[in-house]
Amino acid sequence: MDQIALEGMEFFAFHGYYDEEQRIGNKYGVDLFIRTDLLAAGASDKLDNTVNYEVLYRLIAEEMRAPARLLEHVAHRVLDRVMAELPHVQQVKISVSKFNPPLGGICHRARVTLKRKR
């Protein structure tokens, strides 16, 4: 199986366990990796034979706009959307990071990674 990756996406969003986090927002990072068959796209050079990166980005951006308490929940929603809307995708892996999480000390980011297969 072949891979498409969108790495280093950044969003300002209103996720967080604490009410204050949901009010003031924070910067988040997202890395997405999908596994699908890219043979036809490689041979044809046609967008219809692959996964459109813009579609993937739009799905992620829409889910990042919807507030959540947990990074796990945001990542789970993205996995659900990708699997539901792109049936030829065989596997999805996503990492969602919160920059400078409120832990009472220095921490550059907190990250969760989820993976799903058909």
From TrEMBL:
Matching entries from InterPro entries are given as: Dihydroneopterin_aldolase (IPR006156), FolB_dom (IPR006157), GTP-CH-I_C/QueF (IPR043133)
Q: In which pathway does it act?
A: Cofactor biosynthesis; tetrahydrofolate biosynthesis; 2-amino-4-hydroxy-6-hydroxymethyl-7,8-dihydropteridine diphosphate from 7,8-dihydroneopterin triphosphate: step 3/4
An annotated GO cellular component: cytoplasm
Q: Which residues form the Dihydroneopterin aldolase/epimerase domain?
A: 4-116
CDD domains per UniProt:
DHNA_DHNTPE
Q: Which GO terms describe its biological process?
A: folic acid biosynthetic process; tetrahydrofolate biosynthetic process
Keyword field:
Folate biosynthesis, Lyase
Its Enzyme Commission number(s) read 4.1.2.25
Ribosomal protein as UniProt keyword: no
Its catalytic activity? 7,8-dihydroneopterin = 6-hydroxymethyl-7,8-dihydropterin + glycolaldehyde
Q: Tell me where on the tree of life, at the top rank, the source sits.
A: Bacteria
Gene Ontology molecular function terms on file: dihydroneopterin aldolase activity
**Described purpose of this protein according to its UniProt entry:** Catalyzes the conversion of 7,8-dihydroneopterin to 6-hydroxymethyl-7,8-dihydropterin.
**Family, as annotated:** Belongs to the DHNA family.
From the Swiss-Prot or TrEMBL record, give the protein name.
Answer: 7,8-dihydroneopterin aldolase
Give the source species. Answer: Hymenobacter nivis
Designated gene of the protein: folB
